[in-house]
Amino acid sequence: MNLREIFEQREHEIYRDCASFSDETKGRAKTEDKCDIRTDFQRDRDRIIHCKSFRRMKHKTQVFLAPGGDHYRTRLTHTLEVSQIARTIARALRLNEDLTEAIALGHDLGHTPFGHAGERALSKYTSKPFNHNEQSVRVVEVLEKNGAGLNLTWEVRNGILNHKTSCKPSTLEGEIVRISDKIAYVNHDIDDGIRAGILSEECLPIECTSVLGHSTRDRINTIIHAIVSYSMDKDIIALPEEQDMALTALRKYMFKDLYTNPAAKSEEAKAERVIGMLFEEYIENVDKLPKEYIEFLFMGMDRETVVCDYIAGMTDNYAVEKAKEIFIPKFWQI
Predict the structure, then answer these.
(1) At residue 196, does pLDDT exceed 90?
(2) What is the widest separation between alpha-carbon atoms in the chain?
(3) In which region does residue 149 sit, left (phi positive, over 0), alpha (psi from -120 to 50) or beta (all else)?
(4) Which domains does the chain have, with CATH numbers?
């Protein structure tokens, strides 16, 4: 028996019957030989961490575009916070921690530059709405490794696709990531909003903080404990009604007072114009695309999809630099 088989056996000894077991995965789109020291879900986690799209998230906006400080969240730090929360819940509920972590680390790989502003901009220029969860799946299935994809298991891809609040994952581990994403962004965005001077702890709705707590640390701790206690003997991942209503109300408050706040969003119109200009330029001049994206065209992918893939994969800084390179005239000199 090799190490992988020992770990697979250990999962059946430790995890609840409703967990996802790595030796019972629905498998990969392309069959591969098994690793002798890692389970399939461990391999998926490692592939995500080592891929280029994961590294680019460190230069993609979470809420504040190009903030003037080192401590504001980026798309990468958000992803790590989601992973930490999700792992804590999965371990406490005796569900598959490796699967949970892989989904969490991959859930935002397809996010655009400039956060949701970039998502809105691409939706304006493409024939169908751009959804970052669908793009994240496209990243791991098609775009990474020059078109080969990461060949992840079905369970990880399903969790990535269905991590949005409105979606329904097929595994409890996917449900954990879905709720952990909301826990993370609501609470760390409050922290960033306070750092930016847009919010204060005192201005948060008392009907929410009286239930969840009066600091980011206390709120996250309260919510995690509530989920674990409520879901311990059930085949669901959920919050008790009181905490669920408080978190939902706090999320609504954030949309009203932070996510649409002019101070936080003052540069988003410019960001959307940059995305639109780049899209129009590359649609008209596909020869300006990098070689690997031109090869996608030769493989039969349609022009709109390939241009969207390229722009969605850009970091904030890269998008700005490409816009400067294309649209800002250079001074002639000898």
Answers:
(1) no
(2) 76
(3) left
(4) 3-265 (1.10.3210.10)
Contact 65, 157 (CB under 8 A): no
What's CA 160's distance to the chain center, in Å? 8
Q: How far is CA 293 from CA 23, 44, 106, 276, 297, in A?
A: 36, 25, 22, 19, 7
Q: What is the pLDDT of residues 35-53, one digit of tens each?
A: 999 999 999 999 999 999 9
Separation in Å, CA 47 to CA 38, 39, 40, 246, 331: 12, 12, 11, 37, 44
- Find out whether 304 and 126 touch, Cβ atoms under 8 Å: yes
Name the one residue in this structure whose structure tokens are 């799209």.
Answer: 53
Lookup: tokens for 107: 């859930």
The position carrying tokens 């493409």 is 126
Residue 114 and residue 117: Cα distance in Å, rounded?
A: 6
Phi-psi category of 115—alpha, beta or left, where left has phi over 0 and alpha has psi -120 to 50? left
- Per-residue pLDDT tens over the stretch 148-158: 999 999 999 99
pTM of the predicted model as reported, rounded to 2 decimal places? 0.95
pLDDT band at 264 (very low <50, low <70, confident <90, very high): low
Structure letter (DSSP) for residue 141: I
> Is the pLDDT assigned to residue 67 strictly greater than 70?
no
**Long-range contacts of the stretch 77-82 (C-beta < 8 A, 24+):** 78/108, 78/184, 78/185, 78/188, 79/104, 79/105, 79/107, 79/108, 81/184, 81/188, 82/107, 82/177, 82/180, 82/181, 82/184
Amino acid at 114: F
**pLDDT higher than 90, residue 164:** yes
Within 8 A by CB and 6+ apart from 71, the residues are: 195
Residues with Cβ within 8 Å of residue 41, at least 6 apart in sequence: 20, 22, 25, 96, 98, 99, 102, 153, 155, 156
| pLDDT band at residue 24 using 50, 70 and 90 as cut-offs | very high
* Contact (Cβ atoms closer than 8 angstroms) between residue 271 and residue 117: yes
